[in-house]
Amino acid sequence: MKEICPILYEDQDLLAIDKPAGMLAIPDRWDTNVPVAQQLLQNQFGKLMPVHRIDKDTTGVLLYARNEAAHRIISNDFSNRKVEKIYFAIVQGEPESDTWEVELPLRPDGDRLHRTIIDASKGKEAKTRFEVIERFRGFALVLAIPETGRTHQIRVHLAASGLAIVADPLYGNGAPLLLSMLKAGWKGDAYEERPLIDRTALHSAKVSFVHPKTKEGLIIEAPFPRDFKATLAQLRKVRTRWA
After folding, report:
1. Quick check: is 2 in a domain?
2. What pTM, to 2 d.p., does this model score?
3. Number of domains in the chain
């Protein structure tokens, strides 16, 4: 059987996968024709219950519970901020600081594009910590730790910081990143050029929590996907060339 997506962790209580881009974590009323990891994996692993979700084009660690007891405990831990989630984003722009926090209330489905919006009166508490890992010419690799789990939280909080995630169609310009945009005097064929990355450049890299049954600490990690690594490699070349 062809592997739907890499399995990062599996036992009788939990299943963690390395979700590829273009796949939903759970069914969504807006994207009814998009493949859903939960549904596809249940054919192999039986009933899976979501304890968190990542966006369709976000890659990386995605966790499901495999029974009611595990689902209740781990969901409660997520709600009570006992689970640490670490993401990486490639952003367009120059962060003003190397570390910062954004604490702005968010309300999902707040406009005609179904985006999450900042709403001081009706929004729910949301906080994200950010750290610049690498700086490039006009871009940066940013680590994000969301302390709450609101829809599109990292994307909205980065946009509020004046930074758009590369190729984000909702909170940025959605344009794919091309090599010709980075290299001065690029002489390739514009009609045949393939994007370095053409989906929201956000990756769920690590989830750390206490196992609901064994009570032992568990860290699940997912490596950068190919397009993310290729983009960083080209950004590093440009930085070196112009240093």
Report:
1. no
2. 0.93
3. 1
